[in-house]
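Researcher: Go.
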Amino acid sequence: MSTHGAIIQAMMAFSCRAAAERLRQPSEPLTHPPAFILIVPLFHVTGCVPVMLGCFAGGVKLVIMYKWDADKALELIEREHVTNFVGVPTQSWDLVHSPRFSEFDTSSLRDIGGGGAPAPPALVEKVSSSFAKGKPTIGYGMTETNAYGPGNRGQDYVNKPTSSGRVVPIMTIGVRDPEGNALPVGERGEIWFKGPNLIRGYWNRPEATAETIVDGWLRSGDLGHLDDEGFIYVEDRVKDMILRAGENVYCAEVEAAVYEHDSVHEAAVFGVPHERLGEEVAVAILVKAGAQLTAQEIRDHVAVRLASFKVPAHVIFFTEALPRNASGKILKRELQRQIADAK
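Model: Structure:
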């Protein structure tokens, strides 16, 4: 349950964050009026609040796509002089790797990115080098914050590609242990939010509301840490952690190691049941076009980067994109079911 006031606070806070960012990292004046392209569903909080409602509130042109198509998006960017591209990392990847990318004028773009999932550092660098004036961006928000939260952009993002950005106006951010105690800078814990942009609770779900909202603080369900410059790093979901023989395995950490392999296009790490260990590490991989990869090559690749208990026991390869929901997040439960069905 959100309120009109919370949504307005989020929309205005996005403007404050953008203004603060321009002071920190000045950019060239726009040669065309600002224009956003809507490439995510309106039933997703990013599409609804910061993109659609934000454009309406600011009198900004909004170019709406019926469904995602990278070449069509490039055509619209050129024709409508789009300045802001807000989606999930997969869409940014599709854009810069389109075989027709060089055919279109994308010089109007200033911000390319979005949120919904972490972007591999190689993608951040690719976006940074592919546009004349456009800068890579990422935001960290959720439905419960009306999409508002930290954001990372430009050279900050290139320098700290695994960070979702700095602490932002109107929102207090803390990192806490399982008992709710505040943790010092650098220590991993659950990320908590507090601010006027938060939802008030879940409709007809008082138990879920009481579990998630504690003394005005929202428990994000994400694990991460803050550094000494105020940048936040989202490392995993609390419930997306694998407990293998008493050892904590953070899926995002293993995914980052897998993505360092040049032949990997997409990867998702998840846990599968194991009779003795409790859970075992599994990874689903979409290999880049024309590349070849074996399960053992992936295990060897991860083994030289991480502890042995984090090396995937199960490696499955896909010939097409990994299953995702409408907001672009990989459906790990579907991947778990596929492994279970294969046994």
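Model: The chain has a mean pLDDT of 91.
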